[in-house]
Amino acid sequence: MIHPANLSAVETWNNTVTRRQFFRRNAMGLGTAALASLLGQGRSLGDDLPPGAFFPGKAKRAIYISLIGAPSQLDLFDYKPDLKAAFKKDLKDFLATQGERLTGMTAGQGSFPVAPSVFKFSQHGQAGTWFSETLPWTAKMADDICLIRSMKTDAINHEPANQLMYTGSMISGKPSIGSWLSWGLGSSNQDLPTFVVLHATHSNPGSNVQAISARLWGAGFLPGKHAGVSLRAKGDPVLFLKDAPGISRELRRNMLDGLSALNQSTYELVGDPEIQTRTQQYEMAFRMQASVPDLTDLSKETDATFDLYGADSKNRGTFANSALMARRLVERGVRFVQIFHRGWDQHGNLPNDIAQQCKDVDQACYALVQDLKQRGMLDDTLVVFGGEFGRTVYSQGELTETTYGRDHHPRCFSLWTAGGGIKPGLTYGETDEMGYNIVKDPVHVHDFHATLLHQLGIHHDRLGFKYQGLDQRLTGVEPAKVVKDILA
């Protein structure tokens, strides 16, 4: 700790109480206690929440299943039967009229042959929604989900597309969706993080695994306590979860109390809110030492639950286990759970690889939605399933009747969402006969973000944070709209 007698002139100036610091330091009385009930647990006046940004939302929490690598909408959700007759038709001249951006992986191809899906499609549910044979379990819940087939994005490569999808910007350093929700809504369980990230393994060793970075669940310029906390798939869910040998809980408590007092003294000198963030992280880690073992103990789950999610749900790190953990997390008050499942980047051997990927996720996604429903939680839990962009109708590389690859396609892709006030049994948006352009009801990534925030009780155009002189928002500065037609 710095002694006041040793402060330099600059340090003395830093120690001067600014207007912002004054309100931070004095937001400790009865007014704060009263306001806490309005802001939600874990909120404080120092968080500078924007006025008028919140209203009673349909959803209290969300689970986002992120398929990293971008699954092919043409092989899963967007049925195009007319493509069979166009097998191997060269689209080179057509692409020249579209002003199409091509990646470096297909720009040098001499031809761009149409690749119809090898999979059979059939209709399901009261509305007759089309699903590929690769997703038999998802098809069974056609009346529970809303399938959006007209998503579009601005990015054509994975890293910027993932950043746009999960932080609202292709520029690094922005807060992730979960961080915005953590900052805006606060916590409803003081013993677990507000935002938890799960990394599910995939079972296809031949798949192309896209690298991802912590930027996709980072807090950006928001206080660091709002970053997603990753639970590991192997070993201890959280590193250093157990106290070192010879360290009792009482001794650990005393150590943290002493450290907290030192940090508070430093905070009173310099007024840096990140000091308080660090103290809060230490306290959360202490509480997680008790809460995480209970969270990960599946011994009280019934055989019927394991049967619902599938045999893999007992194996830590699998997608089925992650889906079950997501239910357990939101059941305990976690606001936002994000499951990352990689291996969806199929530039070649797509029919084999995408079928394997679907086996990982299909039954478990069905189980998650049904599990939430039977527990009375689906109505106020928003579930999202999708990737960062779509796939081309033409083949990348060799095309045969049984195999092909597909390149990146930002103009249209599909995702589904369920619960949280979303209209079930709906197919929204249409693409043209080739699945190349959107012809009805386009939904930009920012529109989807606006809708997600709306369902959670947040006005997307009011949830802003002052940074570098700008009002930063998840939905950016361009106009975004809530897609009201998909709301129940």
Outline the low-pLDDT stretches.
1-42
Strand content: 15-25%
Mean pLDDT across every amino acid position: 87
Look up the CATH topology: Alkaline Phosphatase, subunit A
Per DSSP, the total helix count is 14
Number of strands: 17
Radius of gyration: 24 Å
Instruction: Specify the overall morphology.
Output: globular
- Give the total of domains: 1
CATH architecture: 3-Layer(aba) Sandwich
CATH class: Alpha Beta
Secondary-structure content class: alpha/beta
Spatial separation of the terminal alpha carbons = 56 Å
Largest sheet geometry:
9 strands, mixed
Helix content: 25-40%
Q: Would you write up a description of this structure?
A:
By secondary structure, the protein is an alpha/beta fold. It has one domain (61-235, 301-486): Alkaline Phosphatase, subunit A (3-Layer(aba) Sandwich), CATH 3.40.720. The chain has 14 helices and 17 strands. Strands 1, 4, 5, 6, 7, 8, 11, 12 and 15 form a nine-stranded mixed β-sheet that branches. The protein has a two-stranded antiparallel sheet with strand order 2-3. The protein has a two-stranded antiparallel ribbon with strand order 9-10. A hairpin with a 6-residue loop joins β13 and β14. α12 (319-331) packs parallel to α13. The protein is globular.
Main attributes?
488 residues, alpha/beta, Alkaline Phosphatase, subunit A, 9-stranded mixed beta sheet, two-stranded antiparallel ribbon, globular, disordered N terminus
List strands and helices in order, with pairings.
Layout: H1 9-15, H2 19-25, H3 30-39, E1 61-67, H4 73-76, H5 92-98, E2 121-124, E3 129-132, H6 136-140, E4 145-152, H7 158-167, H8 177-185, E5 195-200, E6 229-231, H9 249-270, H10 273-296, H11 303-309, H12 319-331, E7 336-341, H13 350-374, E8 381-386, E9 390-395, E10 406-409, E11 413-418, E12 426-428, E13 430-431, E14 438-440, E15 443-444, H14 445-455, E16 465-467, E17 470-472
Parallel strand pairs: 1-7, 1-8, 4-12, 4-15, 5-6, 5-7
Antiparallel strand pairs: 2-3, 4-11, 8-11, 9-10, 13-14, 16-17
